[in-house]
Design a protein that fits this description.
With about 210 residues, this protein is an all-alpha fold. The protein has three domains: about 40 residues; about 90 residues, DNA polymerase, domain 1 (Orthogonal Bundle); about 60 residues, DNA polymerase, domain 1. Helix content is about 65%, strand content about 0%. Helix 11 crosses helix 13. It is extended and about 65 Å long.
């Protein structure tokens, strides 16, 4: 562990000096201020969905059901002060969803789930699985990018590449493709619409799409 951190102080001094020379110290201070916010690490029922990632192999109602499982597991883990995977593992959730488990007896066929988990959480697991037929309606309304929006995303990405090249930084530091796409689809709370990223890219994006 000591070897992992022995050069950090030296690197910090060099990076700090370089940021000062390039007049970018404000960039780092803004980002660190957000990382130091306690709200970033507080978990509640409203913020859980923003912290979850569904498996790429899942789509539509399966993905929605996985999130329902994850929300329940997160709250259960917090309540018992245990790691979430001690409640139920990701691979177990995926298998339950893929096999469309509907009965408690069917849970016994899944090798990665213990009898203790079945006894303690079986009823809740089956209750979540009841949602799988209803969630198709929820996910069928997903907003998709139209041709004009695709063009806007592409132009914005090209603009990010130009700006990042001029500044000598990677494009993802300014904005990712996903962030750009989400903004064009209507999400306003993205990194590049605040602080230094807004000054160097956000303003320009508004000009492009308007």
């Amino acid at each position: 562990a000591a070897e992992d951190v022995q050069f950090l102080l030296e690197i910090h001094s060099k990076l700090y000096k370089k940021l000062q020379e390039q007049d970018r110290l404000k960039w780092a201070e803004e980002d660190f201020e957000k990382l130091n916010s306690k709200n970033l690490y507080r978990v509640n029922k409203e913020t859980i969905p923003n912290k979850l990632k569904s498996p790429s192999s899942m789509h539509g109602h399966e993905k929605r059901t996985f999130k329902l499982f994850s929300e329940w597991r997160e709250l259960e883990a917090m309540k018992k002060n245990l790691p979430r995977k001690w409640i139920i593992k990701d691979k177990t959730i995926i298998e339950i969803i893929k096999k469309r488990i509907r009965k408690k007896s069917e849970l016994n066929d899944i090798k990665s789930i213990s009898k203790t988990v079945i006894e303690e959480h079986g009823t809740q697991i089956l209750k979540i699985m009841e949602n799988i037929s209803d969630t198709k309606k929820i996910d069928s309304g997903i907003i998709r990018v139209n041709e004009k929006q695709k063009k806007d995303v592409l132009e914005a990405q090209n603009e990010v590449k130009i700006i990042s090249k001029n500044l000598g930084v990677v494009p993802e530091l300014i904005a990712t493709k996903k962030e750009i796409k989400n903004y064009i689809l209507g999400e306003e709370n993205v990194r590049f619409m605040h602080g230094w990223r807004y000054e160097i890219f956000g303003k320009r994006l508004l000009e492009l799409i308007n």
